[in-house]
Amino acid sequence: MSKTRTRILTFTFIFTILFLSSIINVTAYDKKLGVEWGDRVEVACERYIDGRLKTVYTENSPLEVAIDEDITNYNFVSELVGMKVGETKPSISWYVTQTNGSVSYFEYKNVKILKITLDATPDHIGPTAGNVLLIILKVILGIALAFSLFYLIYKLWKRFMIKTCVKCRKNKAIKKCSKCGNFLCDECTINGCPECKSRTFIRL
Is the pLDDT of residue 25 over 80? Predict the structure, then answer.
């Protein structure tokens, strides 16, 4: 098999693997739309009632919220719609009239969307044509960067690790003179070491 054909097959294999990996990793979560109705999310926040801290929800102990229009806590949930994963709102507050007629002030501070635990977007909705083209472009750029990095490493390795014949300065040195230590190629050792004339060499 020729080197050109081998390179083409290698490139095709790497491209296919990276492309399929990118497609598989595409999720239904839309970064532009953020949290949508029907989602279920985990939230970190501090819950206050009438100015008093009642509960602290953290990343290790988050508040799980169903983004449902029929939920009792609609004021809080509606403010989460449109937020992105990792986004934080300083405060979400509203008043609630209790059954006894009293009014309570609810406030959630430092509300941060941690992750989407249930995405309402249908699973069959996949990447758009634009996303596919973007994925292909990213894969090609990734392969180009990978090959560039490998080439740079190879050049550095060749420069510092592969010895060049000290006489012709072009062939790879495969022998070392046992007397003076010069690195030489086969062609330049036919008549012995060009410097010390020794005919004893160490094979590299």
Answer: no
End-to-end CA distance of the chain: 29
Please write the tens of the pLDDT for every residue from 67-111: 887 777 888 999 999 899 999 999 999 998 888 889 999 999 999
Alpha helices in 67-128 (DSSP H): 74-80
In contact, 79 and 89? CB cutoff 8 Å: yes
Query: Is 0.85 surpassed by the pTM of this model?
Result: no
Per-residue model confidence (pLDDT) at position 190: 82
| Position 129, amino acid | A
Q: How many CB atoms lie within 10 A of CB 41?
A: 24
Beta bridge partners of 116: 41
Rounded to 5, what percent of the chain is helix, strand, coil?
30, 25, 40
What is the C-alpha separation between 112 and 90, in angstroms, rounded? 9
Task: Check: CB of residue 114 under 8 Å from CB of residue 42.
Answer: yes
Beta carbons of 130 and 137 less than 8 angstroms apart: no
204: three-class secondary structure by DSSP = coil
CATH number of 40-118: 3.10.50.40
Do 90 and 109 meet the contact criterion of CB atoms below 8 Å apart? yes
What HEC string does 64-83 produce? EEECCCCCCCHHHHHHHCCC
- The domain locations on the chain are 3-26+126-159, 40-118, 163-204
